[in-house]
Design a protein that fits this description.
Distance between the termini: 68 Å
Shape: globular
Structural class: alpha+beta
Number of helices: 3
Order of helices and strands: HEEHEEEEH
């Protein structure tokens, strides 16, 4: 008689095969023609582009709907409240909110931090430069004082 074993759905963090297995596991993430998906490790940004904020939101929501099916299929849990929606525009228009698993993704009206970059709504880089300038000054004072 063969013994049954439980297979867990995880790869130990820091394992040598982890990055490769993650790439294989996520190779079939759904994409659309109306959005650009930027991924670095497990950080993902879905970027719709449309002259009309409602059109951009519809494109984003369509992609999220496809993603939700894929996440359910592969038993991947995403916490929508740890995600952020931000509208990058020089106009005053703001995109309507979107949902993932029937939960509103929080709207960030002024800025969002992604991969260490502070991105403001007009993509001016002011916040990023100000934050990094303050950090650089702090670090240089510490270095000079040692």
């Amino acid at each position: 008689m063969t013994n049954c074993l439980i297979i867990t759905l995880f790869v130990p963090q820091g394992s040598v095969l982890g990055p490769l297995l993650y790439l294989i596991y996520t190779a079939d993430v759904p994409t659309t023609q109306d959005t650009l998906m930027a991924t670095f490790a497990d950080d993902t940004a879905i970027l719709p582009s449309d002259p009309d904020p409602v059109g951009a939101t519809e494109n984003l929501q369509h992609h999220l709907n496809l993603l939700q099916i894929w996440l359910d299929q592969w038993r991947i849990k995403v916490n929508p409240t740890k995600s952020a929606q931000v509208t990058f525009t020089i106009r005053r228009d703001i995109c309507p909110p979107v949902n993932l698993h029937n939960t509103h993704i929080p709207v960030k009206e002024k800025e969002v931090k992604y991969l260490g970059l502070h991105l403001d709504e007009k993509l001016t880089w002011k916040t990023h430069i100000k934050t990094n300038d303050a950090n650089w000054n702090l670090n240089s004072k510490t270095w000079a004082g040692s």
